[in-house]
Design a protein that fits this description.
449 residues; alpha/beta; Rossmann fold; Arc Repressor Mutant, subunit A; five-stranded parallel β-sheet; 23 helices; 57% helix
Length: 449
Amino acid sequence: MRLLIVDDGHYVVEYMKHLLDWKSFGINQIETTTNSIEAREWLNQRHVDILITDIRMPEVSGIDLLQHIHQHNLLTKVIILSGYSQFEYAQQGIRLGALDYLLKPVDKDDVEKAMAKAIKNIKNTTPRPAVQWESFDGLGWLLSLLGENETIRKEFEAYTDLLGSRLFRCLKMGNCTQADIEDLQHKLGDQWTRLVWSSGTQLVGLVPEEVAEMLITKPGCLVLSPPFSITDRNDTRQLFYEFFLGEYVQSTDFGGIFNLSPSCGDWESAGNIMKSYDRIHLRKEKILFLMETILYVYMVDKERNPSETADWIFNRLRDPDELWPTLMDTVSQIRNNKQMSIQTIVGKVQKYIEDHLSHGLSLDELGKVAHLHPVYLSKLFKQETGENVSNYISKKRLERASHLLLDSELRIADISQMVGYKKNQYFIQLFKEEFGVTPYQYRRNMIHQ
């Protein structure tokens, strides 16, 4: 489990960090910060089991952190640190869901009791996430560690939490015989081979440190990185980019680049990524930008061959300008396919409307036809055709009515029913608004022309 300690006093943080034998409570990762804004980002980006926080801090208070946890439905359990004069704040914290509050100066026995309460609460209310290792997507998990996309990060969060207690090493294996490769795969087993891929003439990937120790092969065949913890995303990314792509990156390198990158489903941004890439000049920044673009492609194109994606990441990304045209073509193809899919859906809905004009034709009914949420269908239809679904239905009904008035001798009341209007007077009113005359006048005028 992961513990986060937050206090704007450095001495308090250090005191709390070394106060207890945290491992005896099942805490294997302890994070500390004196910056409450950074703490809030921590809560956003990583799963925190228990938060111990000062209640009064500049900029973002402990109450603010509690509200953030409550608003985002996070599972984090909170213990508040407060002074005697802050009792009302502590009460507010309890109302917001804090498990306990401790008065400063903090007593060791009180902390132990509060932690025991938090651990018991976690065991009682937080079921262990179900992880299906047989369907573990190693490449998707790697991209969730390297990228900034919150959707893919949450998708693999359960795996990251379970693997977070291990140390990993990056692996490169080249100049090896087929027998060497088969021996390595045998030692890895099915679970860990999901984190190793072929790239060009070598094998590359991540392996747990205890597994790496078994992979001793002939000299020069296997290269391993220093061990690292996947729980620190900055360390993971820094080591990955340096080991595989020869670039030293820092956490500050990521912010601006990812503001330019496409996010999953953002087709307008996808159409503009060429302009974004043209504004980047440093090789490092180009690599970071293209890695996020690769993540985007991986998320929206589920049919893509994973070995091609692995080749992009571990091999071709070394020359970003050479890889860029390939990625741009891929993104354009995805966008075109998406547009074709939208046109197909809208066309299907339009045909259904024209074939069922006597029906009520509610958005719920049309949503079932398109297999889309009614609200999303409405937005998609307007985006593609330039008009609302209701306007399109009305237009088609009145068009059909005008043809029936000329091509049949049906009564106007019957025509009204056939095109979906149960109230004859309402139909006459809409028809006159559209054609400037009543249905009866329309039929008479057209026949006598």
